[in-house]
Design brief:
Blueprint lengths: L14 E3 L5 E3 L7 E10 L5 E10 L12 E3 L5 E2 L8 E3 L3 E8 L2 E3 L16 E11 L4 E10 L14 H46 L1
Parallel strand pairs: 6-11
Antiparallel strand pairs: 1-2, 3-4, 5-7, 8-9, 8-10, 10-11
Length: 208
């Protein structure tokens, strides 16, 4: 750590407070082995404290991540409000993903991990998905679709059974026969009364 009495030919390296109880030390540890750190701190009352720390480092092969997240979503051009929009993002080191519907950021349904399409208005929409991994590889993809209104429900009235139709037809025929009989009876009665009146008319004139 520099040329101080406790440096022993080392060098000074910057530190950064991570939070109230921890500090990050940036040191070029680039080989397998044991490293000894001498930590020196000056207290508020002017006293100094020095402490030795040993760190063992062992390196393995690190494969760089140079692939962007993969965004998968299959959606038809025209959908109704019952269609489930479920995007998928594939990346081993995914950091975060954001979703924008018509340029407004939205959140996926936490239980189904999908977009609630039942609240979409009828018409054209645009869904933009942005994903980023912890290395900084970004991916963006835009999907366009239309929400169409559902047709009005068609009420199907079941036809009457054949037996009921035949029964109704027989009832109609009975009513028709009764009507004809009543009409004939009225006609016969009218003729009879008219004939009787004609027969009695001359006798009445002689009496006069």
């Amino acid at each position: 750590l520099g040329t101080t009495s406790f440096s022993q030919g080392g060098g000074f390296f910057p530190v950064k407070n991570k939070d109230n109880t921890s500090t990050v030390l940036y040191a070029p540890i680039n080989q397998t082995g044991t490293y000894t750190l001498m930590v020196h701190s000056t207290l508020f009352d002017g006293k100094a404290i020095t402490e030795s720390i040993s760190v063992s480092a062992r390196f393995t092969t690190i494969i760089p991540d140079d692939k962007e997240p993969k965004i998968i979503l299959t959606i038809p051009e025209n959908i109704n409000k019952t269609h489930v929009i479920s995007p998928q993002i594939i990346d081993e080191n995914l950091d975060f993903a954001k979703y924008y519907l018509d340029n407004k950021e939205i959140q996926l349904n936490s239980s189904s991990n999908s977009i609630d399409s039942e609240f979409l208005t009828t018409g054209s929409h645009e869904l933009e998905i942005f994903a980023s991994d912890i290395v900084g590889n970004d991916a963006t993809q835009t999907f366009s679709f239309n929400v169409v209104s559902e047709p009005s429900p068609i009420t199907v009235v079941p036809s009457e059974p054949v037996a009921e139709q035949e029964e109704q037809k027989e009832d109609q025929n009975i009513y028709l026969v009764i009507g004809i009989v009543i009409g004939i009876a009225i006609g016969v009665t009218s003729i009879f009364l008219a004939t009787k009146k004609i027969r009695t008319s001359p006798k009445s004139e002689q009496d006069l």
